[in-house]
Specification:
alpha/beta; Rossmann fold; three-stranded mixed sheet; 6 helices; cell membrane; cell division; transmembrane; membrane; cell cycle
């Protein structure tokens, strides 16, 4: 009989020990959760500083601008800055072609920005000119051409467009695609792109003579030939009236 009671007592003691261990574990978890919550609340306070912001690829955006986009004030605190919110805001900024936000050790938010580059100036309504990037997005609309950062596209007049609009004319988009395949040095040597009523296109170079490319709707077929010819004439002092690439082989009309 005593043996049975002893066994029951041991079982009761074991159950009590288990309950105590479980209670201790629950208390430990509650304390840890409370400490984590308090710590998270503390690091998100306005005066808490952690990390830094590194902006690459643009001088139009600073670390202070990133804080304003995130709706927070200085000092920098990466615990309260949403990288998704920053990337979304920069992606919807017409000034930029794309943006990428990432983290790097230790505690650095890296913001990589690709700015839009002007490809052509295009005439639009009310005697204005639109500065258009390589994807057809209007970067600026003004009453004149203010700089020589891009060639003028003549012979095509678009409608009433505004900053941030996208060009819809097929001829313009094809020319932009062509230009996007050229390096910056080549584009810098093009002063004007002219399209006539028959949709034939020619590039006027800074050398003083044009290169005829033929039908604008087939301009991409002339890309490799244009690059080859341009690289050859760049190294030579050719006195030409024009260069015709509308045929299979290029034809150079020399000055008399």
């Amino acid at each position: 009989m005593r043996k049975v009671q002893s066994t029951r007592e041991r079982l009761r003691k074991e159950r009590r020990r288990r309950r105590v261990r479980l209670l201790r574990f629950i208390c430990f978890c509650i304390i840890c959760a409370a400490l984590l919550a308090a710590g998270w609340h503390w690091v998100r306070q306005p005066g808490f500083a952690f990390g830094s912001i590194n902006v690459e690829g643009s001088d139009k955006v600073t670390a202070k601008d990133i804080l304003q986009i995130s709706g927070v004030q200085e000092p920098v605190n990466l615990f309260v800055i949403s990288p998704w919110q920053v990337q979304k805001a920069l992606t919807h900024d017409v000034r930029f072609e794309k943006a990428d936000v990432s983290y790097s050790w230790p505690g650095v938010m890296r913001v990589k920005i690709t700015e839009r580059r002007p490809a052509v100036y295009l005439a639009c309504s009310y005697n204005g000119y639109a500065k258009v990037d390589y994807t057809g997005v209007v970067m600026e609309v003004s009453d004149g051409i203010k700089d020589a950062n891009a060639p003028v596209l003549s012979g095509i007049v678009t409608g009433n467009i505004y900053f941030g609009d996208r060009i819809g004319e097929k001829q313009v988009l094809l020319i932009l695609e062509f230009l996007s395949q050229l390096d910056r040095d080549t584009v810098a040597h093009i002063s004007e792109i002219a399209v006539d009523q028959q949709n034939n296109v020619k590039f006027y170079l800074q050398y003083g003579y044009p290169i005829l490319l033929g039908d604008v709707y087939k301009i991409m077929d002339k890309l490799n030939l244009f690059v080859t010819v341009f690289n050859e004439i760049k190294a030579k002092n050719i006195q030409a009236e024009f260069i015709d690439l509308t045929f299979t082989k290029p034809y150079i009309k020399l000055k008399q």
